[in-house]
Design brief:
about 625 residues, Elongation Factor Tu (Ef-tu), domain 3, six-stranded antiparallel beta sheet
């Protein structure tokens, strides 16, 4: 048995683990990143893309906090698109197809170059816990990594099995082993463990795809970078293509549901509701005669094409028939068959908002171990866990963002407050304050937190200050200068008027608003001023409820007026504030009122003057 000593050990080098390890190391913690396979770092085991609806906002927030995902996709993306541009700015989301091999290699290189970080191939089999606190991890080869904090980012590997029709194979991904022993170790430490599933589609050889007649999805002519530090995208860009399933496809699927693990009882875990398998879509929506599919290239140095939307665990012969029934894929050669993966996760209501477990001090969880899906959700949790593990060792309070500040905060608050019984996916509809939580202003909202933790460079911070000064100067100008009796701001509020038109008519404004990012911020603030003002009022109410802290000592079982269900749920979650308590599923306004009255009664009792002690002669 050999030993090593670190401040922080991160287990797993997926998208969560990479961000956690980089953040911790950059904050001065001596960090070890342990992963089963160094050649699978930041692997895109599913869709070779970053961003999308709400996910693009998450990536820009990770970047504003000092993370790496945005920089890596800017360096390796092969098709950049801003989606939902036909809607308001709160719905705009950047998305990019990745060269998945280049993405992995670029992230691996950045990890290798990071000071304070040891990158090592090893399989962790046990978390070492003593007296309720983590002490490190042990690996299958008998090595012990002692640490004051451990971050588990195990993805889909915990006790994982792969389903190919009736065949069941142990593994966390195709060609990679499952992580065994860790789940049992977590149970021994007092944590509940449950099961989830997800699935992947087949990949085909692009040489054998007939792209003629398929709808072409072109990249944006001027790609928008993800990272606030990237000036422009200069990589080659490629198109994607759109095709559809058809009644023949659906007939093949229906004829083979008796061989589908999803319907034979072989797969019993819950899968993602918003990313279902194709067999699930065909069965659940019998009136639909077609479903949209996206044929997405996996890189510039490969012809492999990802069939997005064709997620399946059907047997391989059925996948052949299914694929060949689809327009453009009639002669396609399948290079990798689709499959389902079933894995353990730790229900996230066992976590604090810092992502530290309540049961084991110093143990943090991030990514799919918390029941989420998606690279972006994983990266967002990873950087928060990395920051908070380092802050804990520095003796600082954790970074806990409010739902009014970031999609990252909505994601984490939903997980630790409400939990999840299916793979959680981020949507704009989940954010109450999405008008203010836009992808275009993530730097203005969050970069100060990255700066406070030493993750934002002097140059980038200086650029933000210059941008803020320019925004203020432009805003002052358009609110003070008049044309035909109206201020430029009043003219800008007209639906047919844009900042570019005002710039063309006013040389001084053109000089002040020469930066497109500055002009964009001012235009959004002016055109949506009424909506933004109402949302800021809502945020103020939210802040008041969040400021009403619930003391850690409060014993819900001692509140006689509280319903049994409320006692049970509040005791399990241990909300930090009345605001968080109100978001717990099944907690009613009446329950909150009872807790408020009890807290006020205890406060008055503690504040009341104590009677003077008297003594009786002779006693």
């Amino acid at each position: 048995m050999t030993e090593s000593r670190f401040d922080i050990v991160v287990v797993g080098a997926g998208h969560a683990g990479c961000e956690a390890a980089l953040a911790a190391a950059r904050m001065g913690a001596r960090t070890a990143l342990l992963t089963i396979n160094l050649d699978a770092i930041a692997r895109m085991s599913c869709n070779p893309a970053i961003g999308g609806l709400a996910k693009g906002q998450l990536v820009r927030e990770v970047d504003a906090l000092g993370g790496e995902m945005a920089k890596v996709i800017d360096a390796t993306g092969i098709q950049f698109r801003m989606i939902n541009t036909g809607k308001g700015p709160a719905m705009h989301s950047p998305r990019a197809q990745a060269d998945k091999h280049a993405y992995h290699a670029e992230m691996k290189r950045r990890l290798e170059a990071q000071e304070n970080l040891l990158l090592r191939q090893a399989m962790v089999t046990r978390v070492i816990v003593e007296e309720g606190a983590v002490r490190g991890v042990a690996t299958r080869d008998g090595h012990v990594y002692n640490a004051r904090a451990v971050i588990l980012t195990t993805g889909t590997f915990l006790n994982a099995v792969l389903h190919f029709g009736p065949a069941i194979v142990p593994g966390g991904r195709m060609g990679e082993p499952a992580a065994e022993g860790l789940s049992e170790s977590l149970r021994e430490a007092g944590l509940d463990v449950s099961r989830l599933k997800t699935s992947t589609p087949p990949r085909v050889n692009g040489r054998t795809v007939n792209f003629e007649g398929l709808e072409v999805q072109q990249p944006d002519p001027q790609p928008s970078p993800f990272s606030f530090s990237t000036e422009h995208i200069d990589r080659p860009q490629v198109p994607c293509h759109v095709t559809w399933t058809n009644p023949r496809t659906h007939q093949i699927i229906r004829a083979n549901t008796d061989r589908a693990p999803l319907y034979t009882g072989q797969l019993t875990s819950t899968g993602p509701r918003y990313c279902p398998s194709i067999e699930d879509k065909v069965v659940r929506f019998p009136d639909r005669d077609r479903h949209q599919l996206f044929l997405e290239p996996e890189g510039l140095d490969t012809l492999e094409v990802y069939c997005n939307g064709l997620f399946t665990s059907l047997p391989q012969d059925v996948q052949e028939d299914m694929v060949h029934s689809i327009k453009g894929l009639e002669g396609a050669q399948i290079m990798r068959y689709g499959y389902a993966v079933e894995y353990d996760f730790v229900p996230p209501t066992q976590l604090k908002p810092s992502l530290e477990t309540k049961r084991v001090e110093g143990l943090f969880h991030a990514g799919q171990i918390n029941g989420t899906s998606g690279y972006e959700e994983a990266a967002a949790q990873g950087i928060v866990a990395g920051i908070n593990a380092a802050r804990k060792l520095q003796g600082k309070e954790p970074l806990v963002l409010g739902r009014n500040e970031a999609y990252v905060a909505v994601l984490i608050d939903d997980l630790v407050t409400k939990g999840t019984e299916e793979p959680y996916r981020m949507f704009t509809s989940l954010a109450e304050y999405r008008l203010l939580l836009r992808q275009d202003n993530a730097d203005r909202r969050l970069m100060r937190y990255g700066r406070d933790n030493g993750l934002i460079s002097d140059g980038l911070w200086r650029s933000l200050q210059e941008k803020e000064a320019a925004i203020a100067a432009v805003a002052d100008y358009i609110h003070s200068v008049r044309r035909d009796g109206r201020t430029l701001a009043q003219l800008l509020r007209r639906p047919e008027m844009g900042m570019e038109q005002l710039r063309q008519a006013d040389p001084q404004l053109a000089r002040l608003a020469s930066d497109p990012a500055v002009a964009e911020q001012v235009e959004i603030e002016v055109k949506y001023e009424g909506y933004l003002s109402r949302q800021r009022e809502q945020i103020e109410k939210f802040r008041r409820s969040e400021s009403k802290r619930i003391p850690a000592w409060l014993d819900y079982s001692a509140i006689p007026e509280l319903r049994g269900e409320a006692k049970e749920k509040l005791s399990a979650i241990r909300p930090a504030s009345l605001g968080q308590a109100s978001r717990i599923s099944g907690i009613s306004p009446a329950d909150i009122a009872v807790v408020m009255v009890y807290m006020e009664g205890r406060r008055r009792l503690n504040a009341a003057p104590k009677p003077l002690e008297t003594s009786v002669p002779g006693e």
